[in-house]
Amino acid sequence: MSDTLDLSSNESSLLLLLSKSSSGSFDTNRIGEVKSWLSSQFDAAGKDHVPDFEYTPRNISHLHNLATISQAKTQAASIIANDFRLKASEYRSQAARIREILENVGLAQEGLPANVVSSSQVLANVANLLNIRDTELSSFLVAMGDVSLRKTGVEDKRAKVQKESKILLDYTRKAIARLTYLKRTLAQLEDDVAPCESQMESWKTNLAIMISKERQYLQQYSNYKAMLNRVGYTPEISHGMLVEMEEHRKELDKKTKPILDTLRSYQDLPPDKALAALAIEDKKRQYNAAEKYLEDVLQSALATSDDV
């Protein structure tokens, strides 16, 4: 497989990308790096070719970032692997020298008893577990002290975490109880929605009626106010003043009632004689005038019958 991508199916996308790179938006070197990195990755995975995809500025930018990060991590991993290989070769050389020294002094592993070999292996495993490079007693004591301190710190952290967990559990229980209460309240409110809506419709109707009544009452109030202004009403004429005037009128009635009774008794007396004579003369004149009018009418009627 070649290091370049087969772009026959994406010719238009590539042309668009190159046209954008010529305007300064993209770098053709970046496109080449992406293509080379994709080819190497698919080769490492045993794939024959890179699948076709649409070349867009966003895709190229994202793939270039991935390629940069991948290459940096690959380089770092290669450096660490080479360092580990070098250390392993040094350890093997040192182990060969130590084995040779032990063989020269008669302490080769093949010549030692099985219990000594097993104890040595246990000692080595403990040293590796404690991360110490020698098997001196002081190193073990220091390592054990460090482990004890870390154990104490872990226990303190564990107690703290347990306390926090208990508090969080209490909060969680309270939150669950509140959530249950809120759900029950929500269900009750949902059940009350229909009655409340009907009540609201009724209130809207009543509100419209009340608004109409309010306008009517305001108009009546304005009319009454204008009427009171026309009749001379002033704010000084209060209910208390009217009550006081009514009491005063009652007192005047009490004072004038004897006088009115006296005047009514005078009406029952016979009229004055001179006034009576004048009245009689007036009635006589009216009587004489009526008789004359009647005679004239009769004479006229008789004259009319004689002519016929």
Helix and strand topology:
Elements: H1 11-22, H2 28-44, H3 57-104, H4 114-130, H5 137-191, H6 193-230, H7 239-267, H8 273-307
Helix pairs in contact: 2-3
Task: Report what the structure shows.
This protein is mainly alpha-helical and 308 residues long. 81% of the residues lie in helices and 0% in strands. The protein is built from 8 helices and no strands. Helix 2 (28-44) packs across helix 3 (57-104). The radius of gyration is 65 Å and the shape is elongated. 2% of the residues are buried.
In short:
81% of the residues lie in helices and 0% in strands. The protein contains eight helices and no strands.
How much of the sequence lies in strands comes to under 5%
Range of helix content: over 70%
- Cα-atom Rg, whole angstroms? 65 Å
Would you count the extended β strands for me? 0
Element-level helix/strand string: HHHHHHHH
Total DSSP helices:
8
Residue runs with pLDDT of under 50 for 5 or more positions:
1-25
Question: Which whole number gives the mean pLDDT?
Answer: 78
- What's the N-to-C terminus distance? 164 Å
Q: Helix/strand/pairing class, anyone?
A: mainly alpha
Principal-axes geometry comes out as elongated
What summary fits the major beta sheet? none
